[in-house]
Design a protein that fits this description.
By secondary structure, this protein is an alpha/beta fold. It has two domains: 78 residues, Winged helix-like DNA-binding domain superfamily/Winged helix DNA-binding domain (Arc Repressor Mutant, subunit A, Orthogonal Bundle); 128 residues, Trna Endonuclease, Chain: A, domain 1 (3-Layer(aba) Sandwich). Helix 3 packs across helix 4 and helix 7 packs across helix 8. The radius of gyration is 24 Å and the shape is globular. It starts with 11 loop residues before the first helix and ends with a helix.
């Protein structure tokens, strides 16, 4: 029998000193980094959108949100009475992002939510192509043509089989003249243009496209279903 040597009892202070230096910290996984990057691209996402992105239930998305908040990577809260709680990056969470930290803006919240809903459907759920966000478009055009010379920016570009599809999300009513101006510009610059708009804007935009011979413009009701997207 081997006699076990028993030393003096370990004091509580020594136990604390022996803890790992990263005890209690939150480490970023590859999935964390990918999702945080997407949040930076979209300015913000809602908690239900986060659930769609990770293909999990809402309570799982809330747990992920709370974990990120403990790590100091995100802030979260309501930005509109008509939308769920949002998540946006802090300075720490945006450390590896190419975009500046977005200061929460309630006036843009519903448009950001709608824009992200369209992106999740087309890129993540239907796998239609690769999304280029509005912020990346602005940076690319600024490098090529100067900061103030890029004209109207679409809400995103879907890169699909060598084609560039401009994505426009319209929730508010604009004048017919302004709608025509945007339609003409995007139609001339991109292979196709997909509009996702509130029902009352559908006939107006379809008439503009037909009257002005913009055959590469398609108009869809927002929020779109998978069947709506396949019909474009």
């Amino acid at each position: 029998m081997i006699e076990e040597k028993v030393g003096p009892p370990v004091r509580k202070e020594e136990k604390k000193r022996r803890r790992r230096t990263d005890y209690g910290s939150v480490k970023a996984s590859e999935r964390d980094l990918e999702l945080l990057e997407l949040i930076g691209e979209q300015y913000a996402v809602t908690v239900p959108q986060l659930a769609r992105l990770i293909d999990r239930r809402l309570d799982t998305a809330r747990s992920l949100r709370d974990r990120w908040k403990r790590a100091g990577w995100i802030n979260s809260g309501p930005l509109s009475l008509k939308a769920p709680s949002f998540v946006w990056l802090t300075t720490r969470g945006a450390a590896n992002s190419q975009f500046r930290v977005w200061p929460p803006n309630p006036t843009l919240a519903l448009h950001i939510e709608a824009m992200t809903n369209v992106r999740i459907l087309l890129e993540h759920e239907l796998r239609f192509g690769e999304w280029e966000c509005e912020r990346a478009i602005a940076q690319r055009l600024a490098r090529a043509h100067g900061r103030f010379n890029h004209g109207h920016l679409p809400d995103g570009i879907l890169h699909q089989d060598g084609e560039r599809i401009a994505i426009e999300v319209e929730l508010s009513v604009k004048s017919r003249a302004r709608l025509k101006e945007i339609a003409e510009e995007t139609s001339s610059k991109y292979d196709r243009v997909w509009y996702f708009v509130k029902p009352k804007l559908v006939p107006v935009l379809r008439k503009i496209a037909a009257e002005n011979l913009y055959p590469n413009i398609a108009v869809c009701v927002y929020p779109p279903t998978a069947d709506d997207a396949y019909s474009l």
